[in-house]
Amino acid sequence: MTAHTPSEIISLMGGLGTVLKSEQRTCAAHGPYTDNLMGLGKSRPAAWVGCQKCMDEKREADIRASQEELMRDNAKRSIELRVGRACIPPRFADRTLSGYRAVTAEQKRALRVCGDYAENFLAHAKQGRCLLLLGNVGTGKTHLAAAIGNHVMREFGMAALYVTASSVIRHVKASFDRDSDHTEAQAYQLFQAPDLLILDEVGVQNSTEFERTVMFELINGRYEAMKPTVLISNRGKDDLPTYLGDRVMDRLRENGGKLVVFDWDSERGAIQ
Ligand SMILES: [Zn+2]
Q1: Interval between CA 58 and ligand 1 midpoint (Å)
Q2: β-strand 131-135 against 258-262: which pairing, if any?
Q3: How far is the CA of 9 from the centre of ligand 1 (A)?
Q4: Distance 78 CA to ligand 1 centre (A)
Q5: How many angstroms is it from 32 CA to the middle of ligand 1?
Q6: Contact 246, 209 (CB under 8 A)
Q7: pLDDT above 70 for 210
Q8: Of the four listed, 3, 176, 203, 255, which is most buried by Cβ atoms within 10 Å?
Q9: How far is ligand 1, taken at its centre, from the CA of residue 39, in Å?
Q10: Ligand 1 center to residue 216 CA distance, Å?
């Protein structure tokens, strides 16, 4: 049997208690009131009820608090649904760090930096520290980034979202349509919500002012929320600033942002 406060006992008893004694008291919040000492039967001690208005307020506050908790839970669940495991492309859903084939010294370094980033993600996340994976097609950049995302979701229960730059730009552009189901702010919010954002295929298209603006809004917004981004591009480290602009590069380098250059030949088609 759990302990009940007098007000709960009264309501549990359905008002069946009997008033043994009444006294005039003053509530600090509600002023004068009549307090009743309720007899609750032989098995329970009699109890003063206290200020009725205080009890009503407390009950309303409790209901509000549990409703707010429920809403928070629902919001969290819907974010988890939207940015959960399903957002890592199926091809990369089972990619792990240990599954990455590292033979050369550069490949081993790439694995080491990405491994550290995944394992110490909590510390990196606290600093909003980004990771740039740049270089040739088919060198395993997306594999390693997906492995980081999988690690962050599995080990830390955090949300990771994988998107291509062009899908971000499309989603923001779509918000300008008259019959769009989302506003521009909501478009960015979707990419701001996850603890880790993996932004792939940056710089595939020719750079336009609009795309540079979207990239800045996205990466700067995450930077201000201290949320890390893993950015993947086939452009080299001298070419990327031209595409993204210096403001974005500054954000990516902030707080010791990490860079791995994948400058070896494609492994695609090689025996794995
Ligand atoms: Zn009161």
Answers
A1: 10
A2: parallel
A3: 18
A4: 39
A5: 9
A6: no
A7: yes
A8: 203
A9: 21
A10: 53
> What pLDDT digit, counting tens, does each position of 185-195 carry?
888 988 888 89
Side chain identity, residue 138: G
Distance between Cα 17 and ligand 1 center (Å): 21
- Rounded distance from Cα 67 to ligand 1 centre (Å): 23
What are the tens digits of pLDDT across the range 165-178?
Answer: 988 898 898 888 88
Q: In angstroms, rounded to a whole number, what is the distance separating the alpha carbons of residues 168 and 174? A: 10
Question: Which structural domains are found in the chain, ordered by start?
Answer: 6-57 (no CATH), 85-262 (3.40.50.300)
Q: Find the 69 Cα to ligand 1 centroid distance in Å.
A: 26
58-109 pLDDT, tens digit per residue, is 988 888 888 887 777 766 666 555 444 446 777 777 788 889 888 899 999 9
- What's the gap in Å between 59 CA and the centre of ligand 1? 12
Give the separation between CA 185 and CA 169, rounded to whole angstroms. 13
